[in-house]
Amino acid sequence: MKNYDTLLKDLAPKKFGKLGVIWTSSLLIIIIIGIIAYIDQLIKGQVVTNMRDYALWGIYISNFVFFVATSFVGSVTVAILRLTNNNWRTPIVRIAEIISLAAIVMAGITIMIDMARPDRLLNLFIHARLQSPITWDVIIIPTSIAVSFLLLYFPLIPDLAILKKHFKDESPFLSKWYGILSLNWTGSKAQKAIQTKSIQIIAIMIIPIGLILQTIDAWLFSTTYRIGWDSTNMGAYFISGAFVAGVGALVTVIYVIRRVYKLENYITLLHFDKLGKFLVLACLTYLYFNINEYLIPVFTAKKGELTHLDELFTGHYSILFWLVIVGGLIIPSIVLMFKKFRKPLPMFIIGLAVVIGSWWKRYLIVTPTLLHPFMPIQGVPESWHHYFPSIHEWLITLATLAMALLIITILVRYLPVIPIQRTAEEQELLKNDKNTKS
User: Fold this and answer.
1) How many CB atoms lie under 10 A from the CB of residue 164?
2) For position 77, which CATH number holds?
3) Whether 153 contacts 183, CB under 8 Å
4) Which of 154, 162, 413, 433 could bridge to 4 as Cys pair (CB 3.0-4.6 Å)?
5) Cα separations (Å) of 219 from 17, 212, 321, 362, 365?
6) What is the per-residue pLDDT across 83-103, written as a single tens digit (0 to 9) for each?
7) Residue 163 lies in a domain
8) pLDDT tens, 173-182?
9) Residue 13, in any domain of the structure
């Protein structure tokens, strides 16, 4: 069994190596290019995008829905694991919370990017109408950001106190900030009781907040009364899809962190096995709701709905649609039923496929529906009949994805991604180490 000093050395934040510097620099370059593209979009207007009267949401809203979905795993899933006190979850919950916070922050920023006049953002608050799903989004997203931050921060406090001592000589500047953020934590019984109660309250709060967030986005679509969105299935459809996107992202990030920081002794094969089973459940559940969303209407849909379905099944979007369904849901569900595929590398590949599929799934939810209004498209340029993102839209969207990864990267750099205090207590290292030294 490792002693406490070894555990602390393994789990304390470490400086980036050469690859880390290259990775961070690459993200910054992508973000800067995206900012330049966005400034040009602000100056010239939305004409630089390919969004027009019909495809008025485009890739930005697809990206927004993806971020909202990805944030789900670090909120509801982690909250349930915390409340049920499963010890196996210890090495993965903080990573999930980091992903969740990064994703929901970027969801809020993406909404502002989508606004042609972000200077009018205040109007969403001044002239809010409670009967509008957009107002519900304006309320729930900041709430979700705040609660996600607290769910990450409160369990961190004991570790921040440990890091204050650990970096006292090595990096006084970091030690000072860890000390400030640790809120004078001493580990007394009273502090532990308050912390435990606070985490329980936040975990209970974030479950309905996470469910409401996903449902509000679903209602935002379904209340617009458009072909492809006019469905009572949308709430459950979005929630189940969020599980898939979130768990896929968690698997992918965990694999990278485990390999880069050499955490094989802490994030074990057991964790990948359990996450693999969880991902199978998520994919099968989402597949069920996809059947409800696409297959059942084939037998009952009106002409407009059938036109939309034909476009997905055999038309312009068919290749992308079947790649997403087969490659992002069916194949992962089948292969992960076999234990040999629930190993780190296969799980990483499958998780990456699921994440990519989840992003394009949001594109398919948004774009084809907008191009199939109830009234025929006529009397407009031919280019308005179709939509594919412009170079500005791609650069800005890639920048938001890079920004989410940068937030994750920074948090991973300065925070212990695996809880030090809890891991030590679970392995009884603190007690044993004190007895050895005495």
Assistant:
1) 19
2) 1.20.1630.10
3) no
4) 433
5) 45, 10, 23, 15, 13
6) 777 778 888 889 999 999 999
7) yes
8) 999 999 999 9
9) no
